Amino acid sequence: MTVFKTFWKILNKNKITVIIYTIMLLIFGASNMQTSENSMNFVASKPDVLIVNLDEEKGITKDLIKYITNNSNIIDIEKTQEKINDALFYRDINYCIYIPKNYNKDFMEGKNPELEIKSTKDYQASYAEMLISRYIKVANIYQESIQDEEELIEKINETLSKETEVEVTSKLDTNSLSKATFYYNFASYSIFACLLLIISLILSSFNNEKIRKRIVVSSTNYKKHNRILLLSNCCYSMVLWLIYVIISFVIIGDIMTTTSRINIYYKFLSANNLCNNY
Predict the structure, then answer these.
(1) What is the per-residue pLDDT across 21-65, written as a single tens digit (0 to 9) for each?
(2) What is the pTM of this model?
(3) What is the DSSP string of the chain?
(4) Is CATH 1.10.10.10 the right assignment for the domain spanning 48-163?
């Protein structure tokens, strides 16, 4: 028990450090909880795309470029391989599309010409790839039955104009849930700092030369001493965690005891669905 009591005596001398970190948590956590904006709206981000068109800008080629332009951020850089590779490497662009020569003619003849692609392989590039695939899939389906290019483009645009609707509903108090998130984001740093700093100070105190010599000559086995010291550290960690949890109940309130779950419903009418029904 001597080791255990000594541990808590040393902790008591350094309690100001724990109090300071706790106050910092409350100040910064409270300020962030007040200034945070809670939003459940879905906002689609646009990828940065470079188009290298080797075909004449007319017909399907022109419409494809227009579609990409409307759904992404078109980046204008020097269209050399070196500049394009550098732009991809530094994430100045996410996606590079090469439209081959005679693309419009080959497409209308049913040859299904391929677009050459370079990408960063990140989520923005995946979104750009999804946009291109969506257009090509719709165009290929309509091309099988429509030979007139103007009518084909009209049908493609009519289908692609259908917007996706995402509806998010929640039975939770999302404002309180957001506050809980901010609180525990800051609490994790405060808990880690208190554990690391205080335990280091206590262990360094036990490692003092005079204290270490007393431990060696005492009747307490060093293994038992280390076990008690480990137990003391665990108790301190649990007490510190419990204090921060109690504070969260005081600050955040009933959200800590709720058992409700967020329900998310998606209602969508996509071009893929329309094509499957076509």
Answers:
(1) 778 777 776 666 555 444 444 556 789 999 999 999 999 999 999
(2) 0.51
(3) -HHHHHHHHHHHHTHHHHHHHHHHHHHHHHHHHHH--------PPPPEEEEEE-S-SSHHHHHHHHHHHHTSEE-----SHHHHHHHHHTTS-SEEEEE-TTHHHHHHTT--PPPEEEE--SHHHHHHHHHHHHHHHHHHHHHTT---HHHHHHHHHHHHTPPPEEEE--SS-HHHHHHHHHHHHHHHHHHHHHHHHHHHHHHHHHTSHHHHHHHHHSSS-HHHHHHHHHHHHHHHHHHHHHHHHHHHHHHH-GGGT------EEEE---HHHHHHH-
(4) no
Provide the residue ranges of all domains of the chain, joining segments of one domain with +.
2-39+170-265, 48-163
